[in-house]
Structures are given as C-alpha cells and as structure tokens.
Amino acid sequence: MSEQHRPSCAKRWREHATAEQWPVERTVDAIHSCCGVSRLRAHRLARGWTLGTAVDEFHRMCSEAGVTSPPKVDEDQLALWEKRADRRPRATTVDLLCRLYRTDSQGIGLVGDYRRSSQLEVPIPRSPSGYVQENAVRGLSADRSEGDTITDLPADPIERMAGAVRRSVDRTLASTSVSNGQLDLLDERLLWLRTQYISTPPEAMLGVLLADLEEVRTLAAERQPAAAQVRLSETIALLATLVADCLMKLGRLRQSRAWYATARTAADDSGNVEIRARVRAQAAMLPYYYGPLESAISLAREARLLLRHRFSATGAFAAAAEARALARQGDTPGAEEALRNARGVFERCEHGPVEDAFAFPERRLLLYLSGVHTFLGRSRQAREVQQRALSLYPSHSGIDPALLRLEQAICLAQERNLTEACRLAGAAYLQASPAHRTTILGARARHVIEALPPSMRSARAVRELGEILALPPGTV
C-alpha cells in the first residue's frame, strides 16, 4: 500500500462528496485510492468518525441489534485491523463490521464468505470435488417437496449446491412481510401524524410517535424488497426526526441528540436527498437553541448544499435556518447572503399543505426572518415581520406564536425597555397552554433577560419574570 495521506485529505474528500451528493461507497473508493488506506479505514474516514466514535457506534449497534455476546472491540484493536492485512477479525466480527458500515466483506476489504448460516443454509465445499455430502443432504432434505426421495438428488455436488442456494434464496424472497398496500397505509398514517404534530403537545405526541416507530422498525428488521426497504427507511427517518424534536422541546437534550443521529442514519440509508437534507436542517434546531451555534450553522449549511441545485421547501428552510444561526452569531454578511438564498428558493419552490410538520409556509419563513432581524439589531424590520407572521398563524399552532412574541420582547430588551420586555415575555409564556410550556419555551424566555445589560438584571420586573418561569406548568 502506498504512503498514507493525512486525515485532512480524507476530510477534503468528504466535503467534496457532500457537495457532489456522492453515495458513501463512492467516497470510500476515493479515500481508499487517494489516501493509501485500507478499505476498512476508508469507511470510517468517509463518515468522519474517529476511532473512538467508530467503537462507540459499533457497541451501540450491537446493543440495539440484541447481540448477546458482542466482540470486545476497542480503539487499538480496530486500528490494528485497519492497518495490518495479516490481522483479521473473526467471521462473526466481520459480519458486525459489515452491518456497522452497511456494506459486505469485500466492501471493507475482508473478502471471504461470511454469510450467516441463519440466512442462507448452504454448506461450503472444501474443494470442487471434496463437497461435504452429509451437509448437502441435510440442507436439501429439509425443503424437499412431498414425494421426493434421497435417490432423486443430483449426483453432481455443484448441482446439489446450486439447488440448495436457489431454494434458500426463494425462501428468503418469499418471507417478505409487507405489501404495497401496507406501505401506502403507513404513508397515510405518517401524513396524519405530521398534521397532528403542529398543535399536539410534545409529551402527548411522543408516545404516539414511539408506538408507530416500533411498528415500522419491526417491518424494517425483516428482509424486504429494495423498494420497500427504501420507503421504510424514509418513514423511520421522518418519525425519528419528530421524536427528536419532541425530546428537544421537553429539554431532554442528550436523547434528542441521539434520536437526530438515528434519523440521519435512516435518511442516509434511504438515499432520498430531500429527506437527508430535511433531517439535517431540523437537527440544526437543537444547537440553535442550546448551543453550540457552530453546529447549527454546519448542519443547516450541509442541508442547503445537498439541495443547492433544487428549489424545494426544505432548501428554503435550510437556508433560513443558516441565516438565523449566523445572525445570532453576529455574522451580518453571512446572514444576509443566506437570507437572500432562502427568499430566492422560497419564491421558486412549490408549497405543500400548511398543516404539516415538514411544510415551510410563509409564516414559518417569517418566523426565521424575525430571528435574523432580531439578532442583527434591526428592531423595526423585526416588528414588521413578527406582526405579519402572527396574523398568519391560526389559534392552534403550538409554540410558534409564543416564540414570535418572545422575540418581540427580545427587541424591547435590546432597546433597554426593561419593564415592557419582561411584561411581554411573561404574558407570552403564560398564554401558552400548560402542556406547551416546556423547557424550550422557558429557555427562550430567559433569552429576554440575557438580552438586557447586566446592570438591569436585578430590577423588580426581571425578578418577577424569573418567578413566572420558575412556576411548574399548569399552576397558573
């Protein structure tokens, strides 16, 4: 193998692959060929994983797959397998590595026949003439049709093996458990959930989503035709995104982050560029509200780049999310450029039903514009956008109207209108239904206090707002 390149070379390939929308296998091939690393290591580098991340993902996958005695893989062991061709993992470990990187043994450079016997019950010949006949007979006799006898079996061992393989494959193909009608019903169910999500409190919604997600997961765990598997992966990605969003609203940040990662995995598995971008743009909300802002910008930008040659609602959403995060970071030129991009895409794209968790109608664009103008200190433009947005929201709209009113309060705080800012923030918080007064709304209300100069934060109005935010939901 040629001299290995530095990790920065692989990073440049990943960035190029993202911009060009390459599938991961193509990125692996490029890193393997250019950087002089093994295919096993190229798979890890193509995903931007450190050794520690890969090991963590390996053990998490084993746990979720119910592997009872997972291999004791650590960073040193994985590095050894990546660097030395003469040190190979066991066959069962190769199988798990293939599952981790969603490829086969050839894909990770560990060629050989490592198919699990539970899937294809085919004996392996020692040589073209040294076939293990007792295994062949056992494999065939289990699925003989009525009336067959052992003497009916072909004498040629290759013919016997070919027959065993064919019958095993036929059984596998016949074992699919989902029909197009079922998939259509799942799509209808998902559409209903997306409309209900707009106004249903997150805690109540979470139980419904998890129940539906478990049903879809059960179907996806069984062998399905490729087209069906793609549709199931798409459904899992969108349901997992809604679960992550619920958890974020409830302040369960670690779990939310993990669910966003699951959603990204499912989206990437589906190959649907629109869904891959949607999951990333939605995931940017978590670091936007809770930090770090750099992650919010990176995720939103990645989503925008995935759709840079398309005009869709998701593309407008991604650009608007990037603009809002850049504005909050204080990057005025960057925010303005992203804002122009968002408006341009929004004007040229088709818009679906407004009552949909994944829609991006005008009122949501205005919500993001409000954030841009608010954090760039443009109070007049912010107020105009806020009033326009509030007029477009119906009465049952979740927390978006409350978020807009809290940004009105932030504008007042930036202008040092202390009493009015705290009064408006307290009213916006209390006017939300108790079930919607979750952690995210409280955190946003505290941003009003943070927008005040430190010398003003001990005032009576600020203390009263703090007392309101400390009340348990439903007490007033």
Fill in the keyword field for this structure:
TPR-like_helical_dom_sf, mainly alpha, globular, 476 residues, HTH cro/C1-type domain-containing protein
Walk me through the topology.
Elements: H1 7-20, H2 24-35, H3 39-46, H4 51-64, H5 75-83, H6 91-101, H7 133-141, H8 157-174, H9 180-197, H10 202-221, H11 226-249, H12 253-270, H13 273-283, H14 285-290, H15 293-306, H16 313-329, H17 332-348, H18 362-375, H19 379-392, H20 400-414, H21 418-431, H22 439-450, H23 460-470
Helix pairs in contact: 1-2, 2-3, 4-5, 4-6, 7-8, 9-10, 9-11, 10-11, 11-12, 11-13, 12-13, 13-15, 13-16, 15-16, 16-17, 16-18, 18-19, 18-20, 19-20, 20-21, 20-22, 21-22, 21-23
Distance between the termini: 70 Å
Average the pLDDT over all residues and give the rounded result.
83
Task: Count up the helices.
Answer: 23
Radius of gyration: 27 Å
Q: What is the total tally of β strands?
A: 0
Shape field: globular
Q: What are the secondary-structure elements, in order, as H or E?
A: HHHHHHHHHHHHHHHHHHHHHHH
Summing up helix and strand content along with how strands pair, one would put the structural category as mainly alpha
Helical percent range? Answer: 55-70%
What is the makeup of the main sheet? none
Beta-strand residue percentage: under 5%
Low-confidence runs: 112-155
Walk me through the structure.
This protein is mainly alpha-helical and 476 residues long. Among the domains are: 7-101, no CATH class; 119-125 and 135-141 and 157-175, no CATH class; 178-269, no CATH class. Helices cover 67% and strands 0% of the residues. It has 23 helices and no strands. It has helices at 7-20, 24-35, 39-46, 51-64, 75-83, 91-101, 133-141, 157-174, 180-197, 202-221, 226-249, 253-270, 273-283, 285-290, 293-306, 313-329, 332-348, 362-375, 379-392, 400-414, 418-431, 439-450, 460-470. Helix 13 runs antiparallel to helix 15. It starts with 6 loop residues before the first helix and ends in a 6-residue tail after the last helix. Mean pLDDT is 83; it is low at 112-155.
